[in-house]
């Protein structure tokens, strides 16, 4: 039986199924409320201790997630309702479970993907404490297993030994979750949105996280076909690695620039700058976490990336909060956030916050080859206002005698109005096509909704025609055009993008080798 889902981290895994949803072992009730309270306090402390130990071995992103979990566990507001229930006679495990389940239900009911994805973090915290209460650590998945369940907690992912392979198959889950991000960066195959449950959780399953599906109780013919597909994927990856150190070029020798997309300054630590042509997109909204980052924090984050890149260009995008990327204290609740106050619209509405970022960028610019671009531009007036803010802050820094430089200012092409009428933007320094948003707006199909994923194709002629028109316009006016949406790293989309006239792509670091290999196969 094959069930279709959504690929969240490409790859193949063949292995025995491991049930992620096994209930934690039982808890023995204590003599009275005071003992129950002490048991819960002790369990929370133990969970914090385990997380702190995990942080010791975690890298940047993983450590950030674990720190977030510790902060939540140490927040008195989270445990408050549980301690109140204990005082009125409930045992610690039931009190904690009920309190956390209530909180989780609130997150799950959100209409925003970001908050639904955070429900997995809360389930993780709930189970960590339940586990500590029952003193019985969760059975570890055997090496190479396919972890199957509703959703998976980030700590569960980090505690699992992936050195022998294995994968993750989720009935729900989200490609936007923290775990999906970790799986992509560690190369663990992962499929989400499988919906229906397996009839039996015993035996071997085949996880196809390239196309997105899982086969339970496979027939010999299915196993044979799967192994061929997995071998082909491994061959393609192996062959691609030989392309990594070479500049990208097509079959006919046309040079193509390939840059990388990053989100955190620490992302550059695992990338050899010699393997790419710079940073085509740094998404700065992820720096805007629980608190708005101040000028110094931003300055150091941007400077780190610029110094890493040396003289290669680093294109930093001003904060694109809103849509599926809410930022507490900045974004607003909206019924249709993808069509609302996001990107440059929000930055222009909250100039106090925008000016801090602009100052940090102007100061960081002296440390490398910086370019800055604005997200979600729809009209030339928005660009003019944003550019005027840069000029204003530049004058202010000059008056204060602070070292700075004005970088070239460009725009994202992701709203159809810009792609349809680029002539209104003849004075920008460069265009960067955001194919993720451009596609969702042209096709009227939300990028985070699995039910309309089939419509969300950059290869639809309507989307490709717009991309070709922007590439033509750029060539005619000598304005550089690149593409930084996910399609740039998709080997299936690369031929169409090059045929549309693009010669500059920016891709996720893990896609760099495969993208260069795919480029070498195109005759343009
Ligand atoms: C895009 O829309 O293609 C893009 C690169 O921006 P983001 O995915 O951050 O919206
Ligand atoms: Mg976008």
TrEMBL record:
Recorded catalytic activity of this chain's protein: L-histidyl-[protein] + phosphoenolpyruvate = N(pros)-phospho-L-histidyl-[protein] + pyruvate
GO molecular function: phosphoenolpyruvate-protein phosphotransferase activity
Residues annotated as domain PEP-utilising enzyme C-terminal: 242-522
Enzyme type, top EC level: transferase
Cofactor: Mg(2+)
Boundaries of every Phosphotransferase system enzyme I N-terminal domain copy: 4-118
InterPro entries for the chain: PEP-util_enz_mobile_dom, PEP-utilizing_PTS_enzyme, PEP_util_C, Phosphohistidine_dom_sf, PTS_EI, PTS_EI-like, PTS_EIN, PtsI_HPr-bd_sf
Family stated for the protein in its record: Belongs to the PEP-utilizing enzyme family.
Annotated protein name in UniProt: Phosphoenolpyruvate-protein phosphotransferase
Species this protein is from: Mesorhizobium humile
């Amino acid at each position: 039986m094959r069930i279709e889902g959504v690929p969240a981290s490409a790859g193949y895994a063949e292995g025995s199924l491991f049930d992620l949803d096994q209930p934690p072992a039982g808890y023995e009730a204590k003599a009275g409320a005071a003992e129950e309270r002490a048991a819960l306090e002790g369990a929370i402390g133990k969970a914090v201790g385990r997380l702190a130990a995990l942080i010791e071995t975690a890298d940047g992103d993983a450590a950030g997630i674990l720190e977030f979990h510790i902060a939540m566990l140490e927040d008195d507001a989270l445990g408050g309702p549980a301690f109140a229930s204990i005082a009125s006679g409930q045992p610690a495990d039931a009190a904690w479970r009920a309190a956390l389940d209530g909180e989780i239900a609130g997150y799950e009911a959100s209409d925003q993907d970001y908050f639904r994805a955070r429900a997995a973090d809360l389930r993780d915290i709930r189970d960590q404490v339940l586990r500590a209460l029952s003193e019985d650590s969760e059975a570890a998945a055997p090496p190479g297993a396919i972890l199957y369940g509703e959703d998976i907690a980030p700590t569960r992912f980090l505690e699992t030994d992936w050195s022998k392979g294995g994968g993750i198959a989720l009935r729900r889950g989200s490609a936007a979750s923290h775990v999906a991000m970790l799986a992509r960066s560690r190369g663990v195959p992962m499929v989400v949105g499988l919906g229906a449950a397996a009839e039996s959780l015993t035996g071997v399953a085949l996880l196809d996280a390239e196309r997105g599906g899982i086969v339970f109780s496979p027939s010999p013919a299915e196993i044979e076909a799967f192994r061929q597909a997995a071998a082909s994927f491994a061959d393609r990856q192996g062959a691609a690695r030989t392309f990594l150190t070479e500049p990208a070029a097509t079959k006919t020798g046309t040079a193509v620039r390939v840059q990388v997309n990053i989100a955190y300054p620490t992302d550059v630590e695992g990338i050899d700058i010699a393997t790419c042509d710079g940073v085509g997109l740094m998404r700065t909204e992820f720096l805007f976490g629980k608190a708005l980052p101040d000028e110094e924090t931003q300055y150091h984050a941007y400077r780190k990336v610029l110094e890493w890149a040396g003289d290669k260009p680093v294109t930093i995008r001003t904060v694109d909060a809103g849509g599926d990327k809410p930022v507490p204290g900045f974004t607003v609740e909206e019924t249709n956030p993808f069509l609302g106050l996001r990107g440059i619209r929000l930055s222009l509405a909250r100039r106090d916050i925008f000016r801090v970022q602009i100052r940090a960028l102007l100061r960081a610019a002296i440390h490398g080859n910086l370019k800055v671009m604005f997200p979600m531009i729809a009209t030339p007036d928005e660009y003019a206002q944003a550019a005027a803010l840069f000029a204003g802050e530049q004058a202010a820094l000059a008056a204060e005698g602070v070292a700075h430089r004005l970088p070239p200012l460009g725009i994202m092409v992701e709203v159809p109005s810009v792609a349809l009428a680029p002539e209104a933007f003849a004075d920008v320094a460069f265009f960067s096509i955001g194919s993720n948003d451009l596609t969702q707006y042209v096709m009227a199909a939300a990028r985070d909704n699995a039910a309309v994923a089939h419509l969300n194709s950059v290869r639809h002629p309507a989307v490709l025609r717009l991309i070709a028109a922007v590439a033509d316009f750029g060539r005619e006016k000598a304005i550089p055009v690149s593409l930084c949406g996910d399609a740039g790293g998709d080997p299936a989309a690369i031929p169409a993008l090059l045929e549309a006239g693009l010669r500059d792509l920016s891709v996720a670091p893990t896609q760099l080798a495969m993208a260069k290999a795919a480029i070498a196969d195109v005759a343009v």
